[in-house]
Amino acid sequence: MDSEYLGFKEQFSKTLDKSLRLSVSLRKQTNFKVGGRADYFFAASSLPDLVHAVRLARQHKISYYIIGGGYNLLFDDKGFRGLIIKNCVQKIVKRGTAKIEVFSGTTIQELIKFCVANAMEGFEFLAGIPGTVGGAVFGNAGAFDRDIGSFLAEARILDKRGEQVQVDRDYFAFDYRQSRLRTNRDLLLKATFLLQKGLRQDIEERIAENLANREKKHPPKEAACAGSYFKNPVLPDGKRVPAAYFLEQVGAKSLGVGGAAVFSGHANFIINKQEATTNDILSLALELKNRVKQKFGIELEEEVIYLPEELSTP
Ligand SMILES: Cc1cc2nc3c(=O)[nH]c(=O)nc-3n(C[C@H](O)[C@H](O)[C@H](O)COP(=O)(O)OP(=O)(O)OC[C@H]3O[C@@H](n4cnc5c(N)ncnc54)[C@H](O)[C@@H]3O)c2cc1C
Fold first, then answer.
1. Atom 21 in ligand 1: which residue has the minimum CA distance?
2. Sorting pLDDT into bands at 50, 70 and 90, what band is 15?
3. Is residue 177 annotated as a catalytic residue, yes or no?
4. pLDDT at 214 (0 to 100)
5. 120-130 burial: b if 16+ Cβ within 10 Å, else e
6. C-alpha torsion angle, residues 139, 143, 145, 148 (rounded to 10)
7. 205-211 LR contacts (CB < 8 Å, sep 24+)
8. Which residues lie with the beta carbon below 6 Å from any ligand 1 atom?
């Protein structure tokens, strides 16, 4: 370990007075259950700790990466050279009848529970999507033709200079499974969402309906996967078509590489069936992409995020 790493470690425990874990297996940090070890791992449970950890890493030129629930992530078999910061900063504050301020480490499940308890409607479509608000805003998570970005009014981010900045919805440039956070690596600290006052019973019914619909299509809860692997592509006529439509026609459901396989019930889900490596998953994804490109001339784009072992330092 070089001197930069040693200085970082000392400074971390001195100024944060919190444990920095060393050589941590990333398998347990992603629902795909793959990946090597990270040099450093820190679970931040308060906003000041989260901000401080990022600033320290930047100051010492240590590569860092923020994770929420790890439900959309694929770590490298060789792990990560640097610091993985798990965002566990959870809090929801009600502002008026239909406005909520949510800290980015709050899970979607907690968010839904809060909305039900307070009879706030709008987020029923998020029911069943695993992960945190930070991950959801990053990828503009959605289902049933709705997405989280449409409800965001304003937010606080930590920008590249390590400054906290208040931004409005326009900053995010939300699109299908896309936000500015995907490209600029700013960090969402908290977001304010605008919902509507509703009737608790109606909200509960819609949630139950959505969960039942998801259950029909998705792998069982215990399956090791990261949700839909590819984004749904847009055709030249502007129509967005499910990636599964093309994948089915290239025989995806019968394909596998090593311990990775395509889920038999949905061609756009790759699952870690039996001790797959990340390389198995990446090879399978490449084979699927190649087949779709060859047959339909369509370039599928990954929705799942692959984190390579080395990231350029901030
Ligand atoms: C069974 C299953 C079903 C799924 N169904 C859906 C679905 O219907 N719709 C859908 O959209 N997705 C779905 N997903 C994918 C996943 O749940 C979402 O992408 C979710 O929003 C990921 O949240 P996370 O906290 O786990 O993010 P992570 O996987 O931990 O991180 C994903 C990305 O977000 C970034 N990130 C995390 N927190 C922050 C932050 N605070 N600030 C900036 N960047 C941040 C990370 O750096 C990373 O690049 C599904 C996944 C599974 C396993």
1. 136
2. confident
3. yes
4. 92
5. bbbbbbbbbbb
6. -50
7. 206/121, 206/124, 207/112, 207/116, 207/124, 207/127, 210/124, 210/125, 210/127, 210/128, 210/143, 210/144, 211/127, 211/128
8. 31, 65-73, 87, 104, 129-132, 134-136, 138-139, 141-143, 181, 187-188, 218, 225-227, 305
Dump pLDDT digits (tens) for 166-225.
Answer: 999 999 999 999 999 999 989 999 999 999 999 999 999 999 999 999 998 889 888 999
Q: Structure pTM?
A: 0.96
* Ligand 1 center to 285 CA (angstroms): 19
Asked whether the predicted pLDDT for residue 1 surpasses 60, the reply is no
CA 252–ligand 1 middle distance (angstroms): 24
What is the token pair recorded at 277?
């490596």
81, 124, 228, 291: the active-site residue: 228
CA dihedral of residues 220, 229, 86, 170 (deg, nearest 10) = -120
Tokens representing 272? 């870690």
Query: Tens digits of per-residue pLDDT, 234-269?
Result: 998 889 999 999 999 999 999 999 999 999 999 999
Average pLDDT for 143-159 = 96
Is residue 303 part of the annotated active site? The answer reads: yes
Q: How far apart are the CA of 224 and the centre of ligand 1, in A?
A: 14
Residue 2 has pLDDT above 60, yes or no: no
Contacts (Cβ under 8 Å, ≥6 apart) of 46:
89
Would residue 55 show up in a list of annotated catalytic residues for this protein? no
Domains of the chain: 3-87 (3.30.43.10), 92-216 (3.30.465.10), 219-307 (3.90.78.10)
